[in-house]
Amino acid sequence: MFKNYFKVAFRSLLRHKGHSFINITCLSIGIAACLLILLWVQDELSYDRYHENADRIYRVVYQLEVDGQIRQRPKTPLPLAPTLVNEFPWIQKAVRLGKANFLIKCKDKPFREEILFTDPNIFEVFTFHLVIGNPDTALNDPRSILISEDMRKKYFGEENPIGQIITLEKNHNYIITGVFNNIPRNSHFKFNFISSIFGYRKDYFNEWGVSNFWTYLLVADDSPLSIFEEKMPQFVEKYRGKELRDMYRMTYLLQPLTKIHLYSHLRGEIEENGDIVTVYILSAVALFILLIACLNYINLATARFTNRAKEAGLRRVLGAAPAQLIKQFLGESFLSALVALPLAILLAELFLPLFNSLSGKPLAFHYFNNLFILAGMVGIISVVGLLSGILPALFIMAFHPTDALRGIIKTGPVITLLRRSLVVFQFSISIIFIICMMIVSHQLHYTKTRKLGLNKENIVNIAVNHNEEARRIYETIKHEFLQHPNIIAVSASGFTPGRAPWNNNYWYKGISPTEYRMIGCLPVDYDFIETLDINVVEGRGFSRNFPSDEKSTFMINKAALKEFGWETAVGKYLNVSNDWKQGTIVGVVDDFHFNSLHNKVEPLVLYIDPPGYDFFSVRITPGDIQGILNFLENKWHELVPGESFLYSFLEDDYDRLYKTEFRLKKILTVVTLLELFIACLGLLGLAAFSVEKRVKEIGIRKVFGASVQRIVFLLSKEFTVWVLVSNIIAWPIAWYAMKQWLQNFAYRIDILPWTFLLAGLITLIIALLTIIYKTVRAAAANPVETLRYE
Questions:
Q1: How many domains does the chain have?
Q2: Residues 677/766, Cβ–Cβ less than 8 Å
Q3: pLDDT tens by residue, 470-494
Q4: What pTM value is reported for the model?
Q5: Which domain holds residue 614?
Q6: Is the pLDDT higher at 262 or at 212?
Q7: What does the alpha-carbon distance between residue 235 and residue 228 come to, in Å, rounded to a whole number?
């Protein structure tokens, strides 16, 4: 029986080749888009789940409350991990992670690499496997180091690297004691080198005031996690002090490992994370594209309903039961979906490289090894087949058999409402996507053009990468750079945009010794303010004319002025981290954005500290940029031999802060074009339906002198109303969605009315062009042909 249904369905597809081609094309596009997004969503949801104890691993986050605002940071002090293990018996293991870039030498060849410093028990908490070496002892020696398989191939080829020496800066020799499998890409932190934390910054092991490490805990099954939060006030008072607990409501929180990638977006993340909101958005996009492809199928099916109604009427007269007719129409829709599936897979494979470039992931389909994708295919085919087939079947079944055979086909109000609703829904989604794309583009334009409090143009940042020699001879490097006629200024600092400054404890006169403010600090040189064109609003900038500036003066920004509660700052005394540095404030600078516009400008203290310089900033004149870069690189290698020349433009550094948003804009653009294409095909089907239904009316009107323009206007009027209704529905939804998205930015655009009007105009023009294409041919037809047999 089912074989007969599919045979009839196949003949129907061949009989109506034009409709079948459009149906299958749209379904293929919809299924392909759905498969690509499904693959991306699966990857995002899989982060860190490969660890055997993933559900029992938590990251510790510290939280402060400053002026009523909650501040959370993922970095914690080194003593925290062992202290938590001692205080909470259900915490089985604790692992600390810290990372830094080093110039290393292997076989006398210099390379720049990032090294992860961690506790030796990292293999007891995380599921990382050694292919060579013993995980129980590999990191017992503070001077031991492990490398990934990629690094083994890079440095040693097929040679056994165990026992080989890798030299870090300052001639510190580390012995390779193991090789581990490459870290899976779906890990929220990745590394190629691991060394023992006990060989790195021993001065921090008892320092609670320095938070530069990430702490992870392995807890027992059924651990009383609520007790952790309840006991935190006493814990903070015991180890951090009552004043810090009371003044800042300081506490520590636990983050589940599997939630970090999609739900954590704190300053100081170990790597850039994804966003669950983006997962929801793209999942909804996939659903809407698939749904619109199905609606398009339905619209095109109704466009030729007159002939199908006669066919259904004849079958019912000959004894076919209603259920059999429904099965026939479902057979056609399932067959269309099955034919569309291989084409969709082909399209998905063809566009996968483009999708990967948009998403920033090297994704690949492994159909037979990926149950998620296989289940998705089955689900998609089922949804497409049922949704696309059931409504046209019910639509045709609504007609009485004798009426259908006599050509008396009248649609009731419910069916008419359904048909109009489908078009309204399609164009509502199109308008929503257009508005979202325009607002995202406008916000990103705003991020590029907003005044940041500094001049980011024509600045080249050169990474020092903790190179002590480069710091020591900074003045020499600066002098040599300035010999180039197109180099205007050179300065140095500890951070560039997007990198979280250190937080230090600041005490000032007027508060008790146990009270202090935790504020970001930025090491700079004398010329930093002038090089970046930052405005000094009070006092003066750092100057070599004042010998004390290097050791005992500070500058602050206006946000810090407010944080301290002062009206004026010049001459005020500051003490940093228990006399590490103390002196007076000589100037206040205007607030400048050192992070993205997602965050408000935070308080910042600037001071001169040559050992803290990690970036040299060079202001150049526009023109021969490549020539200047060649000059800088040659001078760099001449003055700092063996050190890599790593540079970036400050403008690009700022743009990278919005990498996720730029990616979203590209995806929205592609999706909007796809959705508009499918929606227009659906509208074309309804225009065909309208023309077919009114062909005799058009002939009569032409006989009585109606012009082509008048007939086109008459046929287009109804569709124009539908598009206008779509705008009324889409505008508030798009406004709410974008209002929520813009909440991610502390500094954002206003949503203006012209955005909605322009989106409505674009869809109206596209809809009219689609309708006119179909109606002009009908209006220009010879009325004799349409009325020949009347």
A1: 3
A2: no
A3: 889 999 999 999 999 999 999 999 8
A4: 0.79
A5: 466-645
A6: 262
A7: 9
Which amino acid belongs to residue 667? I
Q: What is the per-residue DSSP string for 252-280?
A: EEEEEGGGHHHH---TT-SS----HHHHH
Return the pLDDT at 333.
Answer: 75
Indicate whether 514 belongs to any domain: yes
Cα radius of gyration rounded to whole Å, the chain? 34
**Which residue, 481, 494, 534, 490, is CA-closest to 615?**
494
* 439 lies in the same domain as 539: no
User: What's the longest Cα–Cα distance across the chain?
Assistant: 106
Q: Per mean pLDDT, which range of 234-238, 395-399, 462-466, 525-529 is the poorest?
A: 395-399
3-state DSSP assignment of residue 438: helix
- As a whole number of angstroms, the distance between CA 49 and CA 34 comes to 24
Q: Is the pLDDT of residue 175 over 60?
A: yes
In-domain check, residue 696: yes
Is 319 in contact with 449 (CB distance < 8 Å)? no
Q: How confident is the model at residue 789 (pLDDT cuts 50, 70, 90)?
A: very low
| pLDDT at residue number 589 | 94
DSSP state of 138: T
Are residues 582 and 723 both part of a single domain? no
Regarding whether 666 and 561 lie in a shared domain, the answer is: no
DSSP 455-487: --TTEEEEE-TT-HHHHHTHHHHHHHHTTSTTE
Where among 614, 645, 676 does a domain terminate? 645
What's the CA gap between 491 and 532, in Å, rounded?
9
So what's the pLDDT on residue 733? Answer: 93
439 and 471: one domain?
Answer: no
CB 653 within 8 A of CB 498: yes
Assess contact for 532 and 459: CB atoms under 8 A.
yes
User: Would you call 373 helix, strand, or coil by DSSP?
Assistant: helix
Q: Does a structural domain hold residue 80? A: yes
Measure the CA–CA gap between 409 and 423, rounded to whole angstroms.
21
The token duo for 139 is: 């990191």
Q: Residue 719 pLDDT > 90, yes or no? A: no
The pLDDT tens digits of the residues spanning 98-133 come to 988 887 888 777 788 889 999 999 999 999 999 999
Mean pLDDT of 516-533: 86
Contacts of 233 (CB under 8 A, 6+ apart): 245, 251
Nearest to 422 by CA among 286, 287, 300: 300
Whether residue 366 is contained in a domain is answered as no
